[in-house]
Amino acid sequence: MIHVMIKGEQYEYPDGTTLQYISEDMQSDYTEDIVLAFVNGRLRELFHPAPDSATIDFVTTGDPIGAETYQRGVVFLMIRAFQDVYGEAVSRQIFVDYPLAEGLFVRLMNGECGEEMLEAVSDRMTQLVRLDLPFTKESMPTRHAVSVFLQHGMLAKAQLFRYRRASETNIYHLGDLPDYYYAYMVPSTGYLKKFRLEAYEDGFVLLTPGSDAPDRVPDFQPHAKMYRTMESSTAWCRKLSIGTAGELNERITKEGAGNLMLIQEAIMEKQFGDIAEEIARSGKRIILIAGPSSSGKTTFSHRLSIQLRAYGLHPHPIACDNYFLDREKYPLDENGNADYEALSCLDIDLLNRNFQDLLSGKTVSLPSFNFLTGKQEFRGDTLKLEKDGVIILEGIHCLNGALTQEIPDEQKYRIYISALTQLNIDEHNCIPPNDVRLLRRIVRDSRTRGTTARSTIARWESVRAGERRNIFPYEESADVMVNSALIYELPALKAYAEPLLFGVPEDAPEYLEAKRLLKFLDYFIPVPSEDIPKNSIVREFIGGGCFGAG
Is the same domain home to 510 and 362? Predict the structure, then answer.
């Protein structure tokens, strides 16, 4: 017999009892479905037998890790359904491209998906759920895995694993269909009852429940500007024949990364120039920039300012942080702590008066904020806009109309910037933009603030929660979206991030995330940073830039 501890209570089971059996025994104590388990602090799939004297903490679809595991299972389920209904020739064309709205944008690389096709696939997915087929896991030599992928037409996976250092690889099977996913899987198809396929543009969106509402599939709200931005980025990657990690590694090993860096930076510079030209042509004088953490807003603002000067404009950056109210006036969050990211922390009335006065030609006394005392101060800083002067305001609330409610819309040009990763790991594993931004922040905060990777990871979920409240709801209101992700940046960040992630102790709660990020970085061949241009957005994070970022 084995003895396990769950929620402070001890239970006894026969030797060899699986975590899945125990989870089914305990399911009534949980609101959401159990999909994974922490066993003595280590994340495990439910097919594993429970060891004696173990402490078990179950993971449900109400946890972010659980919701991601559920989504991963639905992706595999969908691919199997495509194969069952339309044959392997069609299923081989499936490419899970990028996150979009509340789901994943998927396309057939050589065709379009109509409503009839999606309905047939969805029906087959439902049948497979009722059959409750197991997902099985097989460990095999990496060289053998490459052969398996080639046999099934998964060329991006085969290419990816040619550059894998690990001698063994874990492959999942659903019946006779193999696949690879870089994180854990649910035990069987019977867990995957909720999903929806929505036709969109030349592909479709796969929707699954999120951890915030695990009992329902979210409604699809088209994000047209985000879609166009991602399509532009991915189309450019495919023109270079670099859509996946394996293709990027191949380009680096054969040609180096120097030319690729120059090409990418040329594309970025043209984008900045086009935006500056549009601003100059529009006559708008208030430029509002918002984006989530570690999107490269600082470097973007500098490079945009240079381009604006080339069009004869005089940009004046104003920090939104300078309009913070005295700290004792901040609202409290649900835990009774000051909510530093709330819109009401800002002196909105003063900001609007200042901007109205600037637009009317008056000289304005600008505030600043003392982060040591938590007080708003006036230090004698003044500003008067020239005839061709424009204001650049950057901050998390800049796309929220309530921030500049007294400023006429015809004077405002709104920019949303984020690292919208255009690369994929392979055909079925897209790269979440959050991972790239987190790696950027780990590297930057270690260099500029002496912050450990453990501390940055610990705070990350709170940062993301603020983004979900204050930034993402307004992204589609932007006049233009800027994708700050660079095709070469993950190989460049790797050398800086890996030592920091290895420094997270194994007994720390953040170790699991650090380990996942290390595995993620292992897919990329590193490149030296010497050839990265001094004005690159990557320099904002690794240092050595020309805008005071290093």
Answer: yes
Q: How far apart are the C-alpha atoms of 422 and 190, rounded to whole Å?
A: 33
CB 173 within 8 A of CB 133: no
Looking up tokens 């109400």 gives 62
Neighbouring C-beta atoms of residue 38, cutoff 10 Å: 16
- Considering the domain architecture, whether residues 392 and 260 belong to the same structural domain is answered as yes
Q: Which domain holds residue 348?
A: 227-542
Model pTM score: 0.92
Count of positions (residues) in the chain: 550
CA-to-CA distance for 54 and 34, rounded, in angstroms? 18
DSSP-derived secondary structure for 385-425: --TTEEEEEESTTTTSTTTTTTS-GGGEEEEEEE-----BS
What are the phi and psi torsion angles at 322 (to 5°)?
-65, -15
pLDDT digits (tens, 9 = 90+) for 341-351: 889 999 999 99
Helices first, then strands: H and E counts in the chain? 16, 21
Of all helices (H) and strands (E), which one includes residue 483?
A: strand 480-483
Residue 273 in domain: yes
d(CA 178, CA 185): 13
